[in-house]
């Protein structure tokens, strides 16, 4: 059986980055990956800018100054200050060309137009110089950067409206199981509400993938083969939920073989998510995910998330992994690697209750997964453990 490390390496070795690109509006760019670096069309700031509320000064040898005007953010005027003169100024406002320092308002006293300094200012205090943050022509965001709210704000501040990004994957979600019912319908004995497709779809959209086909398959081989064939022909990524185990009515494995999907690995020595399949046919990648909800989401975060990042040549593929001290003792009784739902709090990580692969309550409260390798049988409170930081963790 494959180790977690071996399975991850297979994913890394198997994925070829996609070369197709497109130009899109910045408003649609969250989660998308830049296909080339973005050059700044201007200096930021583009003018000498005040970093604080206070007074712009033309320095001289006294601590007394005459206030001759005021500059607010957005004012285009350039007040000419002689040595010993000052102007009221606000954060973000243009600093007069004749000013060479700013004193913050907490360090002065004022009576009428007379200003008294309580601290000696230095040349350049609280002045943001032209291009101090970003110089015109520099590359603030490199190829492979995935647009997040912060980088979107940066690009907007540069006046950029469009970016060139790697073309998105087209993905299909295939859900199997006669026992599954859409929410809103009345449950009959033995039925459950289907949630995996919603979980997978939300996770795909968080990666910037918008073109997602959801397909429901009944538990028979013919329907599984037919719908899987169409999904393989029309998508870059196919995610199957359920039906990959060895039960009498689990037809996914048979359908994958019938359609000549190359098996890259099947089954990983991990909990949850042992019956995980990864393969490809042509340029289409296939994950057959376990049917239990927590197993599905764990496998998505560890393997599918990595594949998507590699496909679009992301700058840092895969979720962030850091070391945190664990808050409690934990025994690994299973002889498998563990991915445990957890919360990072106050520079330590706590394992949550309800770790069963069939329950999502711990995932709903988690902001991390703690990884315990198969060969580790016990960790003690205070030990450093590998912690995978989840996106959108609460």
- State the separation between the terminal residues, measured CA to CA: 34 Å
Mean pLDDT: 91
Spatial ordering of strands, largest sheet: 6-3-5-4-8-7
Radius of gyration: 29 Å
**Total of DSSP H or I helical runs spanning 4+ residues:** 7
Q: Spans of 5+ residues with little confidence (pLDDT < 50)?
A: none
Tell me how many strands there are: 26
Structural domains: how many:
4
Task: Supply the helix-strand structural class.
Answer: alpha+beta
Enzyme class: transferase
Domain MoaB/Mog: 172-310
InterPro entries: MoaB/Mog-like_dom_sf, MoaB/Mog_dom, MoCF_biosynth_CS, MoeA-like, MoeA_C_domain_IV, MoeA_C_domain_IV_sf, MoeA_linker/N, MoeA_linker/N_sf
Pfam family, one: MoeA_N
């Amino acid at each position: 059986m494959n180790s977690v490390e071996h399975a991850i390496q297979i994913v890394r070795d198997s994925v070829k980055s996609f070369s197709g690109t497109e130009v899109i509006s910045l408003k649609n760019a969250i989660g998308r990956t830049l296909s080339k670096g973005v050059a700044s069309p201007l200096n930021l700031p583009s003018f000498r800018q005040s970093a604080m509320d206070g007074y712009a000064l033309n320095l001289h040898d006294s601590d007394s100054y005459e206030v001759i005007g005021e500059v607010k953010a957005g004012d285009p005027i350039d007040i000419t200050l002689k040595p010993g003169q000052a102007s009221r100024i606000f954060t973000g406002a243009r600093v007069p060309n004749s000013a060479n320092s700013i004193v913050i308002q907490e360090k002065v006293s004022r009576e009428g137009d007379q200003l008294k300094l309580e601290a000696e200012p230095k040349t350049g205090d609280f002045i943001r110089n032209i291009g101090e943050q970003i110089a015109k022509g520099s590359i603030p965001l490199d190829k492979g950067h995935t647009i997040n709210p912060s980088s979107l704000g940066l690009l907007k501040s540069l006046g950029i409206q469009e970016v060139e990004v790697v073309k998105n994957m087209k993905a299909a979600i295939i859900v199997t199981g006669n026992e599954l019912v859409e929410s809103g319908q009345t449950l009959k004995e033995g039925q459950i509400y289907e949630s995996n497709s919603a979980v997978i779809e939300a996770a795909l959209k968080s990666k910037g993938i918008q073109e997602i086909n959801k397909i429901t398959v009944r538990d028979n081989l013919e329907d599984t083969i037919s719908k899987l064939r169409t999904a393989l022909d029309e998508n870059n990524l196919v995610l199957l939920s359920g039906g990959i185990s060895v039960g009498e009515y689990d037809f996914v494995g048979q359908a994958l073989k019938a359609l000549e999907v190359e098996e890259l690995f099947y089954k990983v020595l991990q909990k949850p998510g042992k019956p995980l399949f990864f393969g490809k046919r042509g340029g289409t990648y296939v994950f057959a995910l376990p049917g239990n909800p927590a197993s599905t989401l764990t496998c998505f975060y560890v393997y599918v998330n990595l594949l998507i990042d590699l496909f679009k040549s992301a700058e840092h593929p895969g979720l962030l992994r850091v070391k945190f001290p664990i808050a409690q003792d934990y025994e690994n009784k299973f002889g498998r690697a563990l991915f445990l739902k957890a919360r990072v709090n106050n520079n330590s990580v706590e394992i949550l209750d309800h770790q069963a692969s069939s329950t999502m309550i711990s995932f709903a409260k988690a902001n991390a997964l703690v990884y315990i390798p198969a060969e580790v049988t016990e960790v003690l409170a205070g030990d450093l453990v590998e912690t995978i930081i989840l996106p959108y963790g609460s």
